[in-house]
Design a protein that fits this description.
Layout (H helix, E strand, L loop, with lengths): L31 H14 L6 E2 L5 E3 L1 H8 L1
Antiparallel strand pairs: 1-2
Helix pairs in contact: 1-2
Length: 71
């Protein structure tokens, strides 16, 4: 049986940052300098890679991008 629903990661949706929940098991960490560097690049080039979240708003990829955007 084939699932006819579209793959969720193909849809872009603008949602408030406070609707995103960091994944408690996220293994990646970024220091302040790395977050500031990402923020500087966002200022220069824009927010070019979206944050990936599940249906409940839990971040699957993009924890550092969110922190940088909130700066």
């Amino acid at each position: 049986m084939t699932d006819s629903r579209p793959w969720p990661a193909t849809t872009l949706e603008l949602i408030p940052a406070d609707a995103l929940v960091p994944f408690a098991g996220n293994a990646r960490t970024h220091n302040d300098h790395q977050i500031e560097t990402i923020a500087d690049l966002m200022k220069q080039f824009g927010f070019t890679i979206p944050i990936l979240r599940d249906e409940s708003g839990t971040i699957l990829a993009g924890h550092a991008r969110l922190k940088a955007a909130l700066l």
